[in-house]
Structures are given as C-alpha cells and as structure tokens.
Amino acid sequence: MLYNLGDMNPSTEQSVLKNKIKLLLKPKMKEILPLMDMPEIESETESDSVAEDNDGDDEEENDDREITTSNTSNTEVVRRLRASQLTVEDSVQRPMKLRPAVSAIMRRVFAISDLHVDYKENMDIIQQWSPMDYENDALIVAGDVTDSLPLLQQTLQHLQQVFFRVYYVPGNHELWIRKPEQEKDSITKFHQIITMCKEMGVVTEPESLCVSNMAAVWIVPLFSWYSTPEEDSEDSLYIKPQNPVGEDKSHNMWMDNHLCIWPSFEGTRSKYFANLNSQTCMKQYTDPVLSFSHFLPRTDLVKPSDKELAEIETERKRLGLESAVEANKKGHINPRSFNFTRYAGCKVLEAQIRQIGSSVHVFGHQHRNKDRRVDGVRYVSHCLGYKRERAAGLVTGIEDCAPKQIWPDIV
Ligand SMILES: [Fe+2]
Ligand SMILES: [Fe+2]
Question: How far is ligand 2, taken at its centre, from the CA of residue 270, in Å?
C-alpha cells in the first residue's frame, strides 16, 4: 500500500496524513526533514502520544504541536512532499535516493500472535517490551489479542510506541460478541476493527517496508477463517481421529460456537475472508514477501513434527514435569474428546500464500510454536499463549516472552 498523496480523498487527507507522517516518520524525523531542506523539528514531549492523536476535537491543534517545526506547518510538509513527487512512504523507504550520505537503516521484522491480553500476566509481559529494544523494528501481530475493542486499541497503541511499525490481522477471539446490544455481529466487528486500525496507523494491508538502505520486503496480511469438515471438507484441515472418543460431538467445547454471531452471507466463512484478500493476491511483489494470517494454512502444520515434540519434552523436563507422552495418555494435556483440527484453518490460505510467493508465512491460533520449511516456504508460529500453557511447557521457544525475529532470516 503506497500512500500516494494525490489519490487521497481531500476530506480525509489531513487526518490520514497526520497519522502516517507521525507513525512513519517519527523515528527518522530528524534524519528526513533535513533531506527536504526543512527546519529542524522541535524536541518531542511526553504528551506526544498516538492516543491523544485520535481524540478528535482538537485535532488541528495537536497536528501543530506534534509535527510543526518552528516555521513549517503540517500542510507545508505535505506541500513539499507533493512538490518533490514523493509519497510519504517513499521518503521513509528510500532515503538513499534523497541523500546517499544518510546513515544505514537496519530494520528487523519480528512476529508474535495470541497475546491474549485479557489475562493480566500477558498484558504485563507486553508492557515490558521497550522501544529501547525495538524502536527501529517492525512487528507482525497474527491475531488473538483480545475480544475487547478498547483493550485491543490500547494494546495496539502500546505496540506502536514500542515498534517503528505494527502489522496486524484479527483472530477468532477478536470476533467474539460479548455485548450483542453494542456489537451487531462478528463480520461487522471485524470491519470495525479494520477501520480502527486504519485510523490508528496499524497496518492491515500489504505494505513495502525498507529493511536496509539496499533492500525492502513486503509485509502482507491475509485474512482468514477455518473451515469445519461440515462446512467444506475440501477446504478444511480436519483430521478424522482414529479413536471416535476424540470428538466433541456436540461441538460444545469450542467457544467460537457460543460467542461468534454470523450474519447470513454467500458461501463459507473461510471463503468470505479469503475473498477479502483478492486484491492482495493480484499484486505483483518484487521484493521478498513476509505474509501472515491467524489461522493455519496446511494440514501438515497441525500435527507436531518429531523435532517439535522433542522441544516440548525438553521444555517440560526443564520445568520438572512428566513427559508429554505420559501426560497425554492420562488426558492431562488435551481433553480426549476435543479435536482441534476441526477449527485449525483452511487450505485456501495455502493457495494464497503460494500465489503471492511468500518467503515466510507467520500464523498463530494453535498455541503450539513451530518454525519449519515446507516446499520452499518458511512457516513460523510464535504464540505467547496462556500462562498455564507456558507453565506446562507446551508453548516452546517463548521462554523469554518476546517476539521472534523472522527477518533477516536467522534460522
Ligand atoms: Fe489464541
Ligand atoms: Fe485463535
């Protein structure tokens, strides 16, 4: 998504630009403004937060406080960007074209999912992430942050303050409807979330991200939902259990079946969300593509590999717990009547990942972490998960409770 100023609706241009300029240029403001022959920006204050940005009433005043230089207004910044025929993104991504002497950019891309910040212990973890560690880096958040809209907004705002750029797709938890009188249905809530993200500057569309002076990557969000075998057996990642005890016949144990409200629409839920990716999948990507979804794209990713099972055993041993094999036999880990594969993901996602030529695909949802290469694509799941899962050694590779670097590739 390029922020081509000429294509913007004039009525929304000012507010959109305010967010884009602040969120895109803020870490590099001192570096970029001089390139454009503009006065130095005044030092920022603690009140210079995105939260205040969205208050609305005193928007114009805030604009001036936040991005006005001693004698240059926001409008003047826009005019000069236009005059130079640069998009806002251009000015951030390709500073070399403007001034070769600029210092090197080395931007990493991190990923995480399933933050579940409704749990205080998880919120405490992300509150400890600091811009000291990530201010020049990007973060992919692959869904399941919370079902509360205010808490989602608060969390994303915090992540924007820690990271240079935040990319996000909603998970199934975000589409839970706890207050039907306020939230009409799960599809309406999904679009409310996307609108909120756009207003905040959290990215939910493909975007080219400069990762060094010489290189860029595309970060590509893919919306999705799972197919149950009853909805679409071809698209579903369902694996029939060998033991018939391994099914919840009433479908009662899966909370989405209680808390999502679906309006009537053509086709399956999986197809509905896959269709939202149509334009994304039509694009030609000339730099490496890092895509992400909440749900799983392949059946072979649902079951753990021998290496992943060994990692769980190692982690359980470290925690002083019995072997996972033994615990599973006793039904201590998974309820024996629950089959997650029914709700795991959809195959249409895999087709889209291949269509856009992903180098890396990040997913979440299962709370079982993975990092595998399959047919030339690296698939990464790095969920924070629940405290009880971490305590049981089931969520591996997250001992430091930090996001995982996925680019540059360090595997
Ligand atoms: Fe989750
Ligand atoms: Fe999920």
Answer: 14
